[in-house]
Amino acid sequence: MSACSKAGTVKRVVLTSSAAVITVNQLHGKCLVMDEENWSDAEFLTSKKPLTWHWPRHLTSLITGNELLIIQLKGIQMLSGSISLTHVEDVCRAHVFIAEKESASGRYICCAVNTSVCELAKFLNKRYPMYNIPTNFGDFPSEAKLIISSEKLIKEGFSFKYGIEEIYDQGVACLKAMGLLQN
């Protein structure tokens, strides 16, 4: 930031952070909406240091059947309140969109999909029946307790190019190409 300031030619800086910046807290209830006004509980984060912070690999756990990663995926939902997904290309597009938008100011959330482990498993089981994806999680919460709202970004005129179908179709194709998933 100081280099940008010293340069004198930088008009706008766009920073990226994960959903953990707004969702990791000890809030209780259902149907909570998290937006640019929300921040995670920093004291809670630093005291707990959850193991689920490196979570992109967990998104394939239901397909690969990795029990440890499924447990960690459930931990992500319990810690953050939902499973939130955005295609990396949409994140990049949002960066450029906001950087070029004269009226843009403050924080913007870029989240295409909010779901829960149970909802995600049902979706994946239906879309990829050949992988025998588990859908019974006992008394684990079937709904996300919160959604991450991209309303401010959308009101600026941004639209998401990828939904959950494309995110997982591309992910599965990548895993197959790498030999990490059978046909």
TrEMBL record:
InterPro entries: NAD(P)-bd_dom_sf, NAD(P)_dehydrat-like. GO terms for molecular function: oxidoreductase activity. GO terms for biological process: flavonoid biosynthetic process. Keywords: Flavonoid biosynthesis, NADP, Oxidoreductase. The keyword Glycoprotein does not apply. The keyword Oxidoreductase applies. It comes from the Eukaryota. SUPFAM superfamilies: NAD(P)-binding Rossmann-fold domains. Belongs to the NAD(P)-dependent epimerase/dehydratase family. Dihydroflavonol-4-reductase subfamily. This is Anthocyanidin reductase. It comes from Abeliophyllum distichum.
